[in-house]
Amino acid sequence: MTSNRKLIVATTIGSIFEIFDFLSFALLTPILASVFFPASIDNKAVWFTYITIAISYLLRPIGGVILGHLGDKYGRKSVFSISILLMSIPSLIIGLLPTYAQIGYTATVLLMIMRILQGFSVGGEVPGSITYIAEKFKQGNYFLACAWLTFGANFAVSVGSQGIKLLTAHTSTEFMHSTGWRIPFIFGSLLTIVGFYIRKSISESEAFKEMQKHKSDNRIPLTQLLQGYKYPVITGILLSIIISMTTGIFHVFLPNLFVTYFHFELSQTAGVSSVGAITMAVASLFFAYMTKYINPIIILRSALITLVIIFAAITNDYINLGLIDSLYTWVIIISFVLAGVNGIFFAILADLFPTQIRYSGIALSYNLATILGAALAPLWSSSILEMTHSYHYIVLVCTIVAIISLLNTINIQRIIKY
Fold first, then answer.
1. Domains in the chain: how many in total?
2. What is the value of pTM for the model shown?
3. Which of 50, 197, 213, 360 minimizes the number of CB atoms within 10 Å of its CB?
4. What is the CA radius of gyration of the chain?
5. Domain that holds residue 82
6. What is the pLDDT of residue 86?
């Protein structure tokens, strides 16, 4: 394996695990709710399980700030290697945890603690991958290099959702509640250990080495970031939030919520997640490659304008998602269009910040966006469905966010001259 390919694999594995673990938790929510919460709280158990997801996301900015500081001050490689190992341990423990029926609320508390530890470590993992890839491939098509992280994340959604679909379709309900739900978490932890051993052999970023030679500013990276780069941080949050929210809604939560509120089969909705994700994975590489010929801002704006039109059509009932065939079709279309953002936004995010604070800047922007997007999405989307039994208000929120993201491209163009 060449050094460049090894680097791509090393970074992509972390991206795969982050989404695979998140997806496993989200798609298995009905089972996890029954396993880790008492039956007496009924449907509220699903809501409490979503709170567990949200809690893990709340710790991401803290983990991102701490690991980002270490990465900017002492080097990308060491932090980049440790963060993936830190992710694997809580996942393995979750897969081995006793249930509520065995040890009561102690199982619930342990589950939440493991999710908190995961949130902390993941907060530095993805920003580290983006920083490392962007700096290593800066002289080539780093849009395409960064897009492999997107490919890995969406490939994980596709394979993970398909795997869960097969697992639920070919095993009994009793097996899934006793043993089956553990399999994805144990598998994911083993995957990250492979990534750790690959990362041990990679070299430090040349951009970081060069910066260390001429470094004159001894301020803490976070201090530099907050004093001189508030505008790029806000721009980065607005750039990232559309990805975090929309992929979470259309690939995970909306199909999953349709199981609870519209009585779709889990095997059907897992299939929706799978085809949508693989569409986005492949299309993201395509749009990243096209930055060689088309200005990235044009690709970004075109995708966002198209998303606004589609979301507005769904909100006004010109497009019906209530039938499984229609849900499949439009998730595929939305995934392709969203790839126009998802395929290039990692590289743009890296370009918003200079080398000395890049890790910290990406970590703060990306992790705050995931809180506003993916972390809170299951809570407000499930609440909306429970109150209204209509998905239109959920898509209306996505429409508003897409419009804000479109306006944000003006900020991006002011900061970065492509």
1. 1
2. 0.81
3. 213
4. 20
5. 3-196+220-415
6. 80
Q: In this predicted model, what pLDDT tens digit does every residue of 23-78 receive, in sequence order?
A: 777 778 778 888 888 877 766 666 677 677 777 777 888 888 888 878 777 777 77
Residue 78: burial class (beta carbons within 10 Å; 0-12, 13-18, 19+): middle
**Residue 235: which CATH number?**
1.20.1250.20
CA diameter of the chain = 63
Whether residue 215 is contained in a domain is answered as no
pLDDT value of residue 237: 93
Helix/strand/coil (H/E/C) assignment for every residue in the chain: CCHHHHHHHHHHHHHHHHHHHHHHHHHCHHHHHHHHCCHHHCCHHHHHHHHHHHHHHHCHHHHHHHHHHHHHHHCHHHHHHHHHHHHHHHHHHHHHCCCHHHHCHHHHHHHHHHHHHHHHHHHHHHHHHHHHHHHHCCCCCHHHHHHHHHHHHHHHHHHHHHHHHHHHHCCCHHHHHHHHCHHHHHHHHHHHHHHHHHHCCCCCCHHHHHHHHHCCCCCCHHHHHHHHCHHHHHHHHHHHHHHHHHHHHHHHHHHHHHHHHCCCCHHHHHHHHHHHHHHHHHHHHHHHHHHHCCCHHHHHHHHHHHHHHHHHHHHCCCCCCCCHHHHHHHHHHHHHHHHHHHCCHHHHHHHCCCHHHHHHHHHHHHHHHHHHHHHCHHHHHHHHHHHHCCCHHHHHHHHHHHHHHHHHHHHHHHHCCC
With both helix axes pointing from N to C terminus, report the angle between 230-247 and 221-228 in degrees, rounded to the nearest 10: 100
So what's the pLDDT on residue 164? 76
The structure tokens listed for 277 are: 């994700």
Phi-psi domain of 221 (left: phi exceeds 0; alpha: psi -120 through 50; beta: other): alpha
Evaluate whether residue 140 is within a structural domain.
Answer: yes
Asked if residue 128 belongs to a domain, the reply is yes
Check: CB of residue 36 under 8 Å from CB of residue 99. yes
Distance (Å, whole) CA 66 – CA 81 = 15
Contact assessment for residue 267 and residue 161, using Cβ atoms and an 8 Å cutoff? no
Question: How wide is the angle at C-alpha 155 spanned by C-alphas 150 and 159, nearest 5°?
Answer: 160
409 found inside a domain = yes
Torsion region of 242: left, alpha or beta (phi above 0 gives left; psi -120 to 50 gives alpha)? alpha
Asked whether residue 211 carries a pLDDT value surpassing 70, the answer given is no
Using alpha carbons, select from 129, 119, 127, 113 the residue that is nearest to residue 10: 129
